[in-house]
Amino acid sequence: MSPLPRIADSEWHVMKVLWEDSPHTANEVVERLSDGLSWSPRTVKTLLNRLVKKKALGFRQEGRVYHYFPKVNEEDCARAERDSFLQRVYGGALTPMVAQLIEEEEFDAEELAELRALLEKGMRSTKGKRTKKRRAQS
C-alpha cells in the first residue's frame, strides 16, 4: 500500500465534502463550501487539482465536466494526521498529550463519563497485548 498523501489544512475542507458524499463536480464542491468559507471557485479548483496530483482524489471525465471522488479513506488520513501531530508535538508519547488535555480543558460530567468508559474499554482490549509485549521484551 502506498503512503498516504500529506493533506494541507485548506485541503481538508475539500476532502470532507467528498468524503461525506461523492462524486461531485468542482462547481458542486464550490457550492457546498460556500456556506462556511469565502473562497473563490478558482481557489477550490486549485485545491482539487493539488489533491488529484497528490493522488488523494480521482476523477471521472464526462465531456468537459470532471466528477471528483476520494481515493483515500478519511479514517486512514485522520490516523496519519494524528500520528504525525503526536510525533511532532509530543515525541510520539500519548500520555503527556492526554494529561495536558485533561489539565487544561473543562469537561462536563457527561464528557468525563465518556472518557472514563473509553479508558476502561481500552484497558480491557489492550490488557493481553501489553502482557505479550512485556514477555517479548524480556
Care to count the β-strands? Answer: 3
Query: What integer value in Å does the Rg equal?
Result: 20 Å
CATH topology type of the largest domain: Arc Repressor Mutant, subunit A
Low-confidence stretches: 130-138
Query: Count the helices. How many?
Result: 6
Overall number of structural domains: 2
- The fourth-level CATH homologous superfamily of the largest domain is Winged helix-like DNA-binding domain superfamily/Winged helix DNA-binding domain
Largest sheet, in brief, is: 3 strands, antiparallel
Q: Please give the alpha-carbon distance between the first and last residues.
A: 33 Å
Task: Report the mean per-residue pLDDT as an integer.
Answer: 89
Classified by CATH, the class of the largest domain is: Mainly Alpha
Structural class: mainly alpha
Order of helices and strands: HEHHEEHHH
Helix content: 55-70%
General form: elongated
Strand arrangement, major sheet: 1-3-2
Q: In the CATH hierarchy, what is the architecture of the largest domain at level 2? A: Orthogonal Bundle
Structural description of this entry:
The chain has 138 residues and is mostly helical. The protein has two domains: 1-92, Arc Repressor Mutant, subunit A, CATH 1.10.10; 94-126, no CATH class. The chain contains six helices and three strands; from the N terminus they run H-E-H-H-E-E-H-H-H. The protein has helices at 9-20, 26-33, 41-53, 74-90, 94-104, 109-137, and strands spanning 24-25, 57-62, 65-70. Helix 2 (26-33) packs across helix 3 (41-53). The longest helix has 29 residues, at 109-137. The radius of gyration is 20 Å and the shape is elongated. Mean pLDDT is 89; it is low at 130-138.
